[in-house]
Design goal:
Belongs to the AAA ATPase family. The protein is an alpha/beta fold. The protein is built from 15 helices and nine strands. It folds into three domains: 120 residues, no CATH class; 178 residues, Rossmann fold (3-Layer(aba) Sandwich); 109 residues, Orthogonal Bundle (Helicase, Ruva Protein, domain 3), CATH 1.10.8. The relative contact order is 0.09. The chain binds adenosine-5'-triphosphate (ATP) and magnesium ion.
Length: 433
């Protein structure tokens, strides 16, 4: 019946169920906890139906969140019902035991639903970044094109002995664009891209983690074409084994290894591509390290990439720098990572805004905007910023001095010792990106 309803009617019905549950929860006595649970469950079913017909990604995101909250509320209520049931008659009837049995199944189903939803949420929305938004890293881009994009685009080329790469590890100092590069891959392919952060795997789904990994790989294998699974910050799950290793980390690791092996042996290897990123590859368990066919070093940007990166971060702002200025800045930022440069540029872009407070000379543009200027300008107007109409206040363009000022307080964050360590690792295990 509900299938034929339009989304608005479904929204209304869902909110009525939630209202009943909310009213019940506000009662001081005789709370019908079963009624609350049933209404939340009904509302959740409707939310799932709306989800299946909704196309707006923002609304889908909100529905996903709402659905997760409702699942957890249901779970909490079921636990509470079980507790009350136990208190009411621990010695007692088969009825209550049956009820508990039913609830256990319900709970299992709900967890399964929650896991499925969590997996679906890892499927990256396309279009946030593309390869052009990643400066430099040409070799890494080339390797990823060959490994992921080409096999999806031209499956007919990868037959017989010519098999596409299955697993690539990106490693390098913090802030060099590893995560951004992976996000860019997701925009370049049409197949599913699962983007998982390993800290999510551990903290959000304790006890459920290994099931989640298993189902994630199953979900990925069941899709048409070749899916990409990206696990960011893989070091937090795949550290070298140690005696004080946490139990759940160990289980996640074992499951992940099993899935990697399963993919090798079951012939599903060409259905999943695994991409991982880390900034401490030496911490990884050798069993994992060995399974990556390519380990690509994502280094600090060179002079050209620094130039490109700074320009990229200035996009959309009025920046008045000559080619010589850019070159000077690119030279002065030796050793900066991509994110150090992003911070530097941000600070420089902010300088004109900071200037506004101390300015009392303004020039008015033909379209009525006020821009700060030198007091000796014959056309200048003297005023405090608070005396001007706020919507008419504009900043001056950003100049090289703003960058030089920003360079004084924003320094590089990657230390030389760390770079030496990366160079040693690359010599033994890696490949330059
Ligand atoms: N090559 C690049 N091209 C464009 N932006 C970059 C690049 N490298 C770094 N950045 C900038 O730095 C920020 C951090 O990049 P990102 O998160 O991809 O780094 P990371 O290598 O994954 O770092 P971590 O190892 O700490 O996770 C990005 O949001 C982006 O602004
Ligand atoms: Mg990252």
């Amino acid at each position: 019946m509900a299938e034929s309803m339009d989304p608005l009617t479904l929204y209304q019905a869902a909110s009525e169920y939630l209202e009943i549950a909310a009213m019940e929860s506000q009662k001081q006595a005789n709370v019908d906890i079963g009624l609350m649970q049933t209404n939340i469950s009904l509302a959740h079913d409707l939310i799932c139906q709306i989800h299946s017909v909704e196309t707006d990604p923002l609304i889908i995101g909100a529905l996903n969140q709402l659905s997760t909250v409702l699942l957890y509320q249901q779970e909490t209520l079921l636990i509470k019902i079980r507790q009350l049931d136990r208190q009411a008659g621990s010695s007692s009837s088969n009825d209550s035991m049956e009820l508990i049995g039913v609830q256990k199944n319900d709970q299992g189903d709900m967890q399964k639903k929650a896991r499925r939803q969590a997996i679906e949420e890892t499927i990256a929305l396309k279009g946030q970044f593309c390869f052009n938004d990643v400066a430099g890293l040409e070799e890494a881009k080339q390797a990823l094109r060959e490994a992921i994009i080409m096999p999806v685009q031209f499956p007919q080329l990868f037959t017989g002995g010519r098999k596409p790469w299955q697993r690539i590890l990106l490693y390098g100092p913090p802030g060099t664009g590893k995560s951004r590069l992976a996000q860019a891959v997701s925009s370049e392919i049409r197949s599913n891209f699962y983007s998982v952060s390993s800290s999510d795997l551990i903290s959000s789904w304790v006890g459920e983690s290994e099931k989640l990994i298993k189902e994630l790989f199953q979900h990925a294998t069941s899709q048409e074409g070749r899916s990409v699974v990206f696990i960011d910050e893989i070091d937090s799950v795949c550290r070298k084994r140690s005696s004080h290793e946490e139990e759940h980390t160990r289980r996640v690791k074992t499951e992940l290894l099993k899935q990697m092996e399963g993919a090798d042996s079951s012939g599903s290897s060409d259905r999943i591509f695994l991409l991982c990123a880390t900034n401490c590859p030496w911490e990884l368990d050798p069993a994992f390290l060995r399974r990556f066919q390519k380990r690509i070093y994502i280094p600090l940007p060179d002079v050209e990439a620094r130039h490109a990166l700074m320009r990229l971060h200035c996009q959309g702002n009025d920046v008045q720098l000559s080619d010589e200025d850019w070159l000077l800045l690119a030279q002065k930022t030796e050793g900066f990572s991509g994110s150090d440069l992003a911070t530097l540029v941000n600070a420089a872009l902010f300088e004109p805004v900071r200037d506004l407070q101390g300015t009392d000379s303004w020039i008015q543009t033909p379209d009525g905007l006020f821009i700060p200027c030198h007091g000796d300008n014959p056309l200048s107007i003297t005023a405090n910023i608070n005396e001007l109409p706020p919507e008419r206040v504009q900043v001056r363009g950003v100049c090289v001095q703003d960058f030089l000022k920003s360079l004084v307080s924003n320094r590089k964050t990657v230390m030389q010792e760390e770079l030496i360590r990366f160079a040693q690792f690359t010599n033994s295990f890696g490949q330059h990106g």
